[in-house]
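Because discrete structure vocabularies remain unfamiliar, we turn briefly to a single example record, giving the amino acid sequence and backbone structure tokens:
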Amino acid sequence: MRRVEMLSVDTVQSPSRLPGWTVAHVLTHLARNADAHARRLSGALSSKDVPKYQSGAHQRRSEIEKGVTRSTGAIIADLQSSMEHLEEIFTASTAAGWPNGHFLGGGHYGVAGCPAHRLREVKMHHVDLGLGYSPLEWPEEYVNWDLPLLLKTVTERFDTSNSRRLFMAWLAGRGSLDSGTTLSPW
């Protein structure tokens, strides 16, 4: 949050490293993502299996687009408030012993996985902000957890079968990775 608190209007409205998104988009997404995890965890505390976004991807996109039109101060205050609320829910969940951790809320991981998935969002999007934080600063514990998970998604994210072959050869030490090889975002 320290990097974000002092951002200028120009910086918040500047392009991020994500195509088509400004820094304001990334910050707003991080706030809404915190709210989404809090929603799932609050539901689990009440024995309700709720999704991150009631209206799915449409709600997510709509909330982000509405959020980016606010002032820089409002965007930053919103992110701070959302993060504080999520921390309160994490504390309550810990105190309750993480009940109903198996609830999926229509997603692909149980609600007990929310803290780890939130960590992924924060670490990845910290880089995406384009404010000087790089993947080389990711903590070893985070890399040890997330790298194997991301590697499991590789084959489904290539755009061609040749890309899969070239990547496989590179992983096996049988060549360099072709600069044209790309993966769709996770």
